[in-house]
Request: fold
Amino acid sequence: MTLLAALDPADADLTACLARVMAAVLKPGDVVALEGPVGAGKTHFARAFIRARQGDLAEDVPSPTFTLVQTYADPAGTEIWHADLYRLTHPDEMAELGLDQAMTDSIVLIEWPDHGGDLPDPLTVRLENVPDFPDLRRITLSGSEPHWGLMTRLPAIARLIHRAGWADARVVPLAGDASSRRYFRLLDGQRSAVLMDAAPGTTGPYVAMTQWLRGRDLHAPQILATDQVEGLLLLEDLGDDLIARVLEDQPGLAPRIYDRMTDLLIELHGHAAPDFVLRLNGAELARQAGLFADYYPVAAGARGKGAGVADAIRALHRELAEDMPPVLGLRDFHAENLIWRGDRPLGILDFQDAVAVHPAYDLVSGLQDARRDVDPEIEAAQIDRYIAATGVDADRFRAAYALLGAQRNLRIMGIFTRLARLEGKRRYLAFMPRVWALIQRDIAHPALAPLAAALEGVPAPTPQIIERIASA
Reply:
């Protein structure tokens, strides 16, 4: 058993806050051993944990000292067992109480766990009183790695939430993205916030871009509190109305929504790009597109094909795009990263990897979406809208748009293949046929003939090839 993290000192509120954070990440089959002397706060911790899991359905959580075991259910259908083994006379009684079965399919919190014998790979939460300070305690988390490795983050998260005035909030996990970041929603009465849990020391670009965007009245989430050393940010909650969901529920809004997306880019491109972002020039675009040649042709059974893609993109960028000054590109500008707020400005998410790039880059990101079909008439209308509003040369802009669309989509094909082959993330393979169709449309532009030639012999992602990639 390894010492994972400590929270020292912790008052009753911070102790309960840690329990609520833990309640957001534990799953059926997890066992928590609550150790510590009488009065150290074991039941206080368990009560906060259980009530957080139950949310609006929270009930009284009495100590199980006399009943030995109490069971609860959360809204997701997970059963939570709260046991106090102090009066247990023999470890064999664990089976009589049903705890042996519960530890396979429920979340089990056990006070006085030493009375129950060996437990199956528990997370040990030890609470100890602080001498001379009866209202404070030291809390340590211990367990096996890698099973419990992510628990090392919980005390830092609890400290930030407590310091920011959200100690009483329920913590609910949110869907993450393709990165290693995790997100949680904090719910406290009528208010809510979002916690970003990133790798320690990596939030600087996000904070810098937030300040830049908000300074120009573009609606990135307000930063409410930070622990940048630990990689934690507490953010304004812009709600759940991702444009992707709104388009699915109300497809008739698509023309209006895409007008608003294009207008946001027009406004964004009216400001000079900050000097602290990466320049996404022809050389860098070519390097990134190299992911395609590195992964997809080999996985598709066409080793050696597509080797000239990067060189073609580098040369075409020099010919078609380098005469236009770069603008700020949010890089992942699409329906999954924009919040629909009615008549209010669109909310912007996931912009920490912003770059200085050709103006067509984000437009093609929003209109050639790997995850969903965009009506070609809407795509054409938005290109026209951007050209009319900015006064750029229409023919050159359309050629650059096709080039950047091909570059982005080739890179995406490479990333999806790599995720499937090296990380076992195969769900993205379902998007490959759509992405390939977009590539074919882009390289059909007469100016992209050299790129089309570089792709000769590379097979389309047929069901058979996708299965080959998935099963490797």
Q: What stands out?
A: The chain has 16 helices and 17 strands. The CA atoms of residues 20 and 52 lie 6 Å apart.
